Amino acid sequence: MDRKAILTEYVKNEILRNKNAQLDENEDLLSSGILDSLAILQLVAYIDKTFKIQVPDEDVVYENFKSINTLVGYLQQY
Amino acid sequence: MNDVIIIGGGPAGSALGAYLSKAGIKNMIIEGATHPRPHVGESMVTSSTRVFKDIDFLKVLEREGFVHKYGASWHAPNGHEFAIEFSEFPQEGIDQDYTYHVDRGKLDLLMLKHAESLGTKVVQGVHVKKVLFENDFASGVRVEIGGKEVDIPAKMVVDASGRQTLLGNQLKIKVKDPIFDQYAVHAWFVDVNRGAETKDFIHIYFLKVERGWVWQIPINEEITSVGVVADKNVYRQAHKDLESYFNEHVITNPDLQEAMKNARRINEFKAEGDYSYSLSKFVGNGFMCIGDAARFVDPIFSSGVSVALYGAKYASERIQHALETGDFSEESLKPFETRMRAGVGIWYEFIRLYYKLLPLFTHFIQSKDHRIEVLRLLQGEVYDRSEVPVLDAMRRYIETVEKSEKHLMKKSLTSISID
Hints:
The structure holds 2 protein chains of 2 kinds. By secondary structure, chain A is mainly α. Chain B is α+β, with helices and mostly antiparallel strands. In chain B, strands 1, 2, 7, 8, 9, 10, 19 and 20 form an 8-stranded mixed beta sheet that branches. In chain B, strands 4, 5, 12, 13, 14, 15, 16 and 17 form an 8-stranded mixed beta sheet that branches. The chains are: A mainly alpha, B alpha+beta.
């Protein structure tokens, strides 16, 4: 699976806790309330564990975590 | 004449009595209450084990069947649980990967009896009116017995009177903490659903109110202690009786609500206020203050009994030195204060950053770089340390978040100042 699919699965299964949930790759995860602060921290820990990428603290900003697509785009530098 | 008079027979006073008696120093504990008496502070950290081992008390804890505490678990308001186990971080000089949850009435009675069995003279139900001073040195205490005042002399006086802070009040050296004014409402319950694998852990449930959290501590097979803690203003503004206040908060955390579904209360609600303070000095000519009588910090990490026990351990070392040299001056006793202040200062800073980070603290529990260092602190390893890198990391993290206008965690930090 590519990163996009892996992250989408993770958000569905572990954060929304509903594997049948509809989740568009451009959906705004923050305004919609899908990701709260604890969920973002979970996601950061998961990215570290799964992709071996440590997201620097200062990069945890709206632009990078807005949607699955922006997150995958941000992670491309690693 | 007694070498040392100890005011108060809680964990600090009894542990000190035990240490001194083992060292052959004549000492007497004067306790105002008659044990057993109820007391809050029912959970401990693993570093306490060293002191219990020193004073041969571990076998009593095992014989009496106190509940083993193997870890701690945090429940966020959104239903996520984060747990730590003490076995992940083995501690030097400690052979067990658990500490204890205790009925303090029972623990404190057993510790007092233990000190007595080692040679400490114990009197209970006797109220100390004040510490006597002669030529600017503490010289004994004045007690009230059968309506009459009696003076008892000693070479040294140790105040272990707990939150009563007898000497702190007498000398007017008690300073209220500028940040923490927490208020706790607690009681014992039966039929609390403690969970499965983590049923013997302490459970902490975050509340959405300012600095709010709830403890769940197993006292024995049946009884569980549950307490709601929050900034005192939260209670003041609620305008409610203790029970409605308690219940109103229980339903705000889904995991807690589930745990308390069938719970039945078996004693009266009790309230504790005026939480954090420190004396401006812990020692003076001929006296020392240990445990809560010297300083009290917020109880979130179950640090209180451990601070009391290490206070007793380090005070006993300094008292032996004073008796050997005949020097009971403030200067001679000062190294005790320096050591305790440094240790309790680390607890305080950890607690302050924790409240600042809430609930982002879980970030550091989940982090593979910081987890072990957080555990080390949670297990009470705060003494004789020159640096604590994880606290620096927490401060840096807070700074990063606060500096960046768009940081997603900005709103999650609480309003506590960390300068």
